Amino acid sequence: MNGARIELKGAAYRYDALVRVPDLSLAPGEAVACIGPSGCGKSTLLDLAAGIKVAHDGEVSYDGEPWRALAETDRRRRRLHEIGFVFQEFELLDHLTVKENVALPLMLQPERADAESEPIAALLDAAGVGAFATRRPRHLSHGERQRVAICRALAGTPRLVLADEPTGSLDPDTARRVLDLLLSFVRDRGATMLAVTHDHGLLDRFDRVISFDQVSGSGAPAGNETAGGTA
Ligand SMILES: Nc1ncnc2c1ncn2[C@@H]1O[C@H](COP(=O)(O)OP(=O)(O)OP(=O)(O)O)[C@@H](O)[C@H]1O
Ligand SMILES: [Mg+2]
Question: Are 3 and 17 in contact (CB under 8 A)?
Answer without folding.
Answer: no
